[in-house]
Amino acid sequence: MSGDCGTGGMRIDRLLYCLRFVKTRSAAQALVGEGHIRCNRQRVLRSSLCIKPGDVLTLPTGRTVRAVEVLSLPERRGSASEAALHYRILASGDAAGGLTTDAKAP
User: Fold this and answer.
1) Do 86 and 70 touch, CB atoms closer than 8 A?
2) Distance CA 13, CA 51 (A)
3) pTM of this prediction exceeds 0.85
4) Extended strands (E) in 1-106
5) What angle do CA 34, 9, 20 make, to 5 degrees?
6) What is the pLDDT of residues 72-102, one digit of tens each?
7) Rg of the chain's alpha carbons, rounded to an integer?
């Protein structure tokens, strides 16, 4: 089930919950409603936004900000190691500073 997104998409609040970035779906809705989430560099203000594989999310996690690429959509909320298979961390940094990429320069 993917809400009203049809096949190939999932609501952002459900995705954040299934990928274990938040503990509850209500917390995901609050995070989105406060304007703290970006999808493909655009601020997200609706919890019903459909996310598809390939989208890049920028979100606060604790005291840091992370940019993650959605690789695939989970079927359910599973373990942390299972959730980590569905996304790739592109960059992370503290809230005051900028983002730094996790890739190493050659």
Assistant:
1) yes
2) 10
3) no
4) 10-11, 38-39, 42-43, 50-51, 56-61, 64-70, 87-94, 100-101
5) 55
6) 999 999 899 999 999 999 877 655 455 455 5
7) 13
